[in-house]
Amino acid sequence: MLHYAGFTRKLGDVDSGSTVMDYLPAERSRGITIQSAAITFGWRDAQVHLIDTPGHVDFTVEVERAMRVLDGAVAIIDAVAGVQAQTLTVWRQTSAYGIPCIVFVNKMDREGADWQRAVKDVEQRLGTRALVLVEPEIEKLAQGKYEPSELRYWVDAVTMERIEYDASDKTGATVRRQLLTPEDGRAYEVAGRAREKLVETLAELDAEIVDEFLAVDGDHVRVSTRAVRAAVRRATLSNMACPVVLGAAFRNVGVQPLLDAVIDYLPSPTERPQPKAISGSQKLNESREISDSRKTKSPASRNALTNDDKLVAFAFKVTVDAQRGPMVFVRVYSGSLDARMTLVNGTRGGIRERASKLLQMYADSSEEIRTIRAGHIGVVLGLKHTRTGDTLLHPDHTSLDDATVVAGRERSAMHMLTEEDVREPVGLQLHGINVPPPVFMCAVEADSPKDENPLAQALASLLLEDPSLSVSFDAETGQTVLRGMGELHLEIVRDRLRASVNVTFGTMRVSFREAPSCTGSARFDYDKDIAGRPSRAGLRVEIEPHDRNANNVFVEMPDELVAVNNPAMVAFPWLHTSIRRSIWDGVHNALLRGTLLGFAVVRAKVRVSDIVYYGHYPSTPAAYRACAAQAVFQALAQCSPQLLEPLARAVIQCPANHVGAVLSDINGSRMGRVLSLDDSDDVRGAKRIVAQVPLSAMIGYSSALRSLTAGSGTFSMHVEDYGPTTKQQRDQILKDSLGY
């Protein structure tokens, strides 16, 4: 794409590690995309912001935060394998945000390529209607494979043209289009059949194309190109169908028609609905759109993107540069973001930061710009406190009151960001990014005392960049524990750390959960002097088992306080917001570390009662936070906590002659449970096994599966639930973790 758009002088190649977008050493050595990269280029007088996202399940968060700010997407499908497991995951992410998609069926030059089956797979497994726009002129395969000469000629069902790639130009840059007529014989017949099927499919989705069809006496070929293109666009923008383009990227075939389809059928920023937003005091179910000025249903009028409104921007990604510091990727939804502009971070309590510079990114290179306008993506330098998922506002935004602006200015002047600032959102808030909890973990230690500070700094940078990564300190063992989404995820983190710090990694383990098996309660009174000032609070906590089908925690809290040492005040009719939030934080922070092995507590119902208030000065939010945490710790100790292990849903594909070995391995040493066994829809002659297996048993399964299937097996998995461990398993886990 970049070469044909004139951005690069030569073509990049994944195998040789010369691609523009995959610039990290780990990406080039492994031949995969690890982190999303953004680039801007032009095509047909339009400016395109392209974000290349990973395909591996371990890097789902990279896809999630890219989807959060995109207007359209291109899904790459293998012409041989069809729709794969991770394709379904990414498709569900695009559907959740209502993003219109184009499907590009790639690898048409491979042995066994079957684009008709791939298109059928798209309709059946992705649940959408496929609108095939470009087909090969050669309809039948020669020995099950398209030869390079057969990939030169294609037909365009929309324009009724032949697309010819110049055989002498190996880069694929020379493309000729010729309007087809009946004299062209086979090419015209193939294009006619493709046009007929396209119009018939559109007629089931769009009423206007039916009128056009009837106006030309039911002749599919005579329906104007303009009418067909408009109908495809309407069906795409309404998410009723997706255009399908075929090609072979390795042979540099099909890329230009794909770029044309992006411009013709995917929406511009003004054609997308504004994202939902809430105010700092609202609940998530009370969300509204950024602007209510849209009253019509016209796509062009649905969106309030305008440079005249006050700034609303969303930080969807943060990277750390050794020289520049944090680089915050933002999408501007209204107004414009100018260099040297003061911004209010509503998510972080209204703290004010200055955008020192603005950049337009081209993968790992950049160009300084003066402004980022509504609908565009750019990078902001100078924001020290902004994180992924934060909302940035103009200081004069109508959702900010004067008190918030003054408080934010004071905090900025003090160059500090308090814990309360992070927990007290103010002003308009765009919905954030869903980050799944990490499931794999390992210990990391500096090799020497002089490496401890560099390790801490490197981990801080990684945490800033990757919200799916977490670091905790185990006080009992004295170890720093690193948690990630999978084996590959932690391997990449390990390689990045070792490139700059001398560190040692422990054995890969999985992250368990703890859950109460019975009811426990505790009363705690907090009474300490902090900085010479008394801090007092008191409350009771009761914990009981909760819904076993929901891996979460439910907290009940009364609306009244019990007043002490104040005869004129028996009870408050309400619980002050800061105290309620502090108790809530104390409870949830305590539940992040259980009493058994320090894993997060789930499936618990926490009831807070008898909250004692000693007055404004001694009963501070910090006192209630500490009091709630201590009460939870004491109550958990009485709940006989049980250990829950993560259960992975594994989808395995292998040849039929290796099924027995794979099933024996799953049912035997891995203690799994086979859920289904059927023919694979992706690979001919292969079997598809779906099983539920303890995640701990899947460590190193990639190598084991290759050994069992002579390198022909593939699998994907994701954590879908947590299940209780047996007493024998629990004792062994405790022994492995504690050493006794």
Q: So what's the oligomer here?
A: single chain
Task: Tell me the radius of gyration.
Answer: 29 Å
The poorly predicted ranges are 283-288, 291-305, 409-423, 566-574
Structural class based on helices, strands and sheet pairing: alpha+beta
Write down the overall mean pLDDT: 83
Q: Distance between termini? A: 58 Å
Note the total helix count. Answer: 17
- Structural shape: globular
**Portion in helices:** 25-40%
> Total strand count, please?
38
As a percent range, the share of strand residues is 25-35%
The side-by-side strand order for the widest beta sheet comes to 17-16-22-13-14-21-18-19
Largest sheet: 8 strands, antiparallel
In short:
The protein is an alpha+beta fold and 740 residues long.
How does this structure look, described?
The chain is of the alpha+beta class and 740 residues long. The protein has 17 helices and 38 strands. A hairpin with a 6-residue loop joins β36 and β37 (686-694). α13 packs parallel to α14 (621-636). The termini are far apart. Residues 283-288, 291-305, 409-423 and 566-574 have low confidence and may be disordered.
Task: Produce the secondary structure layout.
Elements: H1 25-30, E1 37-43, E2 46-52, H2 60-67, E3 73-78, H3 85-96, E4 101-106, H4 115-126, E5 129-132, E6 134-136, E7 153-156, E8 161-165, E9 175-179, H5 186-203, H6 207-215, H7 225-237, E10 241-246, H8 255-265, E11 276-279, E12 288-289, E13 312-321, E14 325-334, E15 336-338, E16 342-345, E17 351-354, E18 357-362, E19 365-369, E20 371-373, E21 377-381, E22 391-393, H9 402-413, H10 419-423, E23 428-430, E24 440-446, H11 452-465, E25 470-474, E26 479-484, H12 487-498, E27 503-505, E28 509-510, E29 513-515, E30 520-530, E31 533-545, E32 553-556, E33 562-563, H13 577-591, E34 604-613, H14 621-636, E35 642-655, H15 659-667, E36 673-679, E37 686-694, H16 701-708, E38 714-724, H17 727-738
Parallel strand pairs: 3-4, 4-10, 5-10, 32-34, 33-34
Antiparallel strand pairs: 1-2, 6-7, 7-8, 8-9, 11-12, 11-23, 13-14, 13-22, 14-21, 15-20, 16-17, 16-22, 18-19, 18-21, 24-26, 24-27, 24-28, 25-26, 29-35, 30-31, 31-34, 35-37, 35-38, 36-37
Helix pairs in contact: 13-14
